Amino acid sequence: MNLILFGPPAAGKGTQAKRLVTERGMVQLSTGDMLRAAIASGSELGQRVKGVLDRGELVTDEIVIALIEDRLPEAEAAGGAIFDGFPRTVAQAEALDKMLAARGQKIDVVLRLKVDEPALIERIKKRFEEQGRPDDNPEVFVTRLAAYNAQTAPLLPYYEGQGKLTELDGMGTVETVAASIDNALEPVAAG
Ligand code: AMP
Fold it and tell me: ∠36-4-129 over CA atoms, to 5°?
């Protein structure tokens, strides 16, 4: 099963993805994590993207599509991928559909975690204090939210048109959101 965890930054995608990895043995494909790892390693890619992440803007489609393509065989071997923070543009979504189709695969479901903006801003304040991630800085976060609204939210009609979109309330505790994800995945896993 291939699923996309969809939602604005700080919606809880990463937290829920990690739980699904532990419980279902799926592979989490987080382009944000991959880019941060590249930056931490000091690679050529890392040096190229650091400024973009620090500003809260999106890196180019080509970069993230290539990162994901590299990891698809591993996800397939594990029985499925959880896409977290990818795709973020319609071009990325189209590329993902093509890459999966070439492997005889598809996206099975897109789970949208709905969290309102005041709650996101509250969460990010806390995360910034706890983890100090530079792009969680409240000013940069405004840019990240704007990128979501302008470039990523248009994916909702894309996946709705494919009949794959399921909307979930992401405002509850980690446990209640986890329970609604499990519920939503039941019919998908049953095929
Ligand atoms: P995230 O951890 O998913 O919030 O991603 C952190 C940052 O990495 C984003 O603000 C972007 O700068 C970059 N990034 C992650 N995923 C993508 C993507 N699919 N497309 C473009 N930029 C991305």
Answer: 40
Angle of helix 31-41 versus helix 61-78 axis, rounded to 10: 110
d(CA 18, CA 174): 12
Angstrom distance (rounded) from CA 24 to CA 181: 13
- Spell out the residues 6+ positions from residue 52 whose beta carbon is closer than 8 angstroms to its own: 58, 59
Closest protein CA for atom 15 of ligand 1: 32
Instruction: Give the number of other Cβ atoms within 10 Å of residue 10's Cβ.
Output: 25
Which stretches of 6-163 are DSSP H helices?
A: 13-24, 31-41, 44-55, 61-78, 90-102, 117-131, 138-147, 155-161
Name the phi and psi angles at 10, rounded to 5: 75, 15
For residue 6 and ligand 1, the question of a CB distance below 6 A is answered with no
Q: Which amino acid is at 157?
A: P
Pull the structure tokens for residue 151.
């470039």
User: What is the C-alpha to C-alpha distance for residues 70 and 61, in angstroms, rounded to an integer?
Assistant: 14
- Whether 7 lines ligand 1, by a CB cut-off of 6 Å, is no
Q: pTM score, two decimals?
A: 0.97
CATH number of 3-186: 3.40.50.300
Question: For 72-121, how does the pLDDT look when each residue is reduced to its tens digit (9 = 90+)?
Answer: 999 999 999 999 999 999 999 999 999 999 999 999 999 999 999 999 99
